[in-house]
Amino acid sequence: MHADELFKEFRETSITEFFRKNRAHLGYSGRLRSLTTVIHELVTNSLDACEEAGILPEIYIEIKSLGDSHYRVISADNGPGIPVKHIPDVFGKMLAGTKFHRNIQLRGQQGIGVAGVTLFSQTTTGKPIRVRTSTGNGKVNEVELMIDITKNRAEILSNREYSEYWRGTEIGCELKGVKFSLREQGPFEYVRRTAIANPHAKIVFVDPEGRKTIFERSSEKIPKSPVAVKPHPQGIEVDDLLNMAKKTKARKVSSFLISEFSRVSSAKVKEIQERVDFDLNKNPRRLKWSECEQIVKAIREIKFLAPPSEGLVPIGEEQIKNAVLNILDPEFDAVLTRPPKTHSGGVPFQVEVAVAYGGHAGRNVGDGVKFEIMRFANRAPLIFDAGGCAITQAVNSIEWKRYGIRDYENSPFTVFINIVSTHIPYTSAGKQSVAEEKEIIKEIRMALMEVGRKFQTYYSRRRRAEEREQKRQILMKYSIELAAGLAKLANKNEDEILKGLHKLIDKRMLDYITEEVEEGREEKEEAEMDDLFIENSDQ
Amino acid sequence: MHADELFKEFRETSITEFFRKNRAHLGYSGRLRSLTTVIHELVTNSLDACEEAGILPEIYIEIKSLGDSHYRVISADNGPGIPVKHIPDVFGKMLAGTKFHRNIQLRGQQGIGVAGVTLFSQTTTGKPIRVRTSTGNGKVNEVELMIDITKNRAEILSNREYSEYWRGTEIGCELKGVKFSLREQGPFEYVRRTAIANPHAKIVFVDPEGRKTIFERSSEKIPKSPVAVKPHPQGIEVDDLLNMAKKTKARKVSSFLISEFSRVSSAKVKEIQERVDFDLNKNPRRLKWSECEQIVKAIREIKFLAPPSEGLVPIGEEQIKNAVLNILDPEFDAVLTRPPKTHSGGVPFQVEVAVAYGGHAGRNVGDGVKFEIMRFANRAPLIFDAGGCAITQAVNSIEWKRYGIRDYENSPFTVFINIVSTHIPYTSAGKQSVAEEKEIIKEIRMALMEVGRKFQTYYSRRRRAEEREQKRQILMKYSIELAAGLAKLANKNEDEILKGLHKLIDKRMLDYITEEVEEGREEKEEAEMDDLFIENSDQ
Asked: Is this prediction's pTM over 0.80?
């Protein structure tokens, strides 16, 4: 067949058409997962909106059964609302939104998710989604819309405006080919984990049986609002630099670098100037690829301060501790927030880790309890695709037995990990798995090893205290008999002999403790081998 | 912060910009994987083009090192070439192509891949890709182009046209931040596996050290060209049906169904008519959602012939056998092509499986040999993301020890699986992992169990033959001594006694074989338990 013939079918596709045919990329595969994905998109959107607006979130989620595999989902929040002119694009257009362009930590980052809900709803039921929203200006809009798939834009079916003083967003949609379940990967568990990672949010969840669960907020503190931060120079690639240089208002490359990047001072510009063969007073719009390459190379040779942490909003050790204690009531827990680092060159990120042992920690499987990993990215639970995720890989790469946990897979152990970043490198548009960036894996490992050592100290101390107490009890028991015997033999006072024996026992116990401290030191050294491993594998 | 303030940043993103920021979705993560992804996109495009045009493919791939993490890749094929007016869109626009809209089995299906190469090349090196192509009409075009990212369209830097009689396409691009390696996930192994699954292709591969490997074709037979097939009714969803009904030229729903679907006859239409409450003589453009829903429901209650197999092009048992024998030289092999089935409602697909034992089968790891899974989709190797793939899940769900393979993970065993379909349900745009659709998993399991039983028969027969021969040798050895003794004792002819003894031994051996046959029957029944398992787990 000739090429002209073959190319007769050449056509362009819209992004909406693409995702309509490749739903699985957005997380719409399987009946349970599809429903959880809808809840995920609605909840993260509400949380993001509240957080940016500085509002303590109150979220309502209701799932109603309408028949076999047929449900209605209603979500409502007390967020800032959506200005009426943006309603069509927010819900009816993919790759449109407030998040993609900004270097800001939010759960959503792509401008696909919530339009994905509209798409899934209409392609499974033929019905529009209903949006009711107000920014609190006394006017409420109720809009019904679908997506015009070939054009990737909203088709408004109705728009009713009326007066009412209320603020927030309410979404109603119907779904077919989905299924509710209380299983680990279902909507309830998704919401429960969201509540754990967002102790400032109140979430009401009503399941299809009409059971209402209220996740009360355990903290009244509004998390600081995430702010868009300038990119860190060490995260920049040549292509990014060139693009930014074309758009800048600065007149010189030097002022461009200082004004559009974080941590670039005039002293740093001087250091860069020493390493490049052209004048940094040049107009940035005239920069060539090779010159940008020189700048990027220079930047990688120079030390910069770590990215500013105001761009990152971790949950915080105290909040995590409360949440973990609250829910798992463990025998032992340790929480750690690592300092901010950069991945993929220069995107700031930060890792938070908690481990809990005993109590309700671990995952209940049949009669037994198994090791459990709870993954979060920007406080949103990651429920699916655990296999290919950097978090899973990092956790499984730890030699837990070094920290005194013999059969870790069958221990009542929960590891909680949250990665916060202005750009989480997800492996696909479904956002359930973090790409295996080595810096991220390294940070998680570092954090786990640190809490692992704390666990080890606790656990071996507990074990030894138990052993010591056993020994002491045995010795004490026999000391009385022994004292009586010795008293007769030596014809001395029995009480005095007993006192002497007890002194001996106490001394022996002290010796034990000293020995243990020595041993502990050795074990600690052994555990630090892990650090070495990391350094060597980091290339 | 007020909503109006928050929405000041509302913006639209192009698909190219989206993938520029989320490279990992296309498979561009890590230095080795990024290079393999480029080779993958170029090779699959060449193979698809040749196959559609009915040309025996000759493909040339060269990777040159230009410095640290900096390479030049050249690919060339003898394919049909690209008509000049389509060059910009093929290489410079995402979601454009000949494949997305058609129900046809090709390696590419999204219209993203090769523009992804342009994007990756220009964002890492700032350079255009160079394309030289001709449809064989005496004119050759040499074009240099980049993508205008904000507009998702090609920016042509140069276009030189000259006269020459030649046909094919040659692509040259530079890449940075990538790395060549001979490892399992590198370009060489990718090409080697491509050669295994495409025995009709000749592929020349030149690595950065200048080593040239020629994968000669082991078959001169051009595979039949894939043809676009009409969708099978049982794969259709309400939304699809409604969309098709809006675009059809048919005047009645009945003729619409007959002309635009495969396996729908007027008898079937009659069956549908009996199940719906409106007249199928209606104009299809006037169909309502609820009416389409009735049609889809009716279709699911009716039996249809399996999807026509002319839409599917398996490699074929003979070709796979040749390839496997050629490369692995195994002690045992079994090949199986299952009949076509449908997934996700009605997309036709077919599974091909081969197992090889002994010889060069298995994966060499250090000193040992491990179980190896070679995954393919539409003859393209799947090298990454094995963890979340339906193929891996299906293979690992088999209880190999039932088939006589004790420690399967450490056996010299290669399992080769190819899924062919007009639409492979990949989990992400990187196309390295197949979504876990239950019909696909079931088919793979069925195929593996069938070849597993063949292996079992071979293996237990071999084991028994060995045991039998050992026994026979022992008996024969003693029969001579025994005959001499008996001859003396009974005063009879030694030779005759020996003959009698040998007869006895032969009879005993026959008994063994009969017993084994009985045993074999039992084992077979046990293995069939697996089938039961499948039936039960299939809901």
From this structure: yes
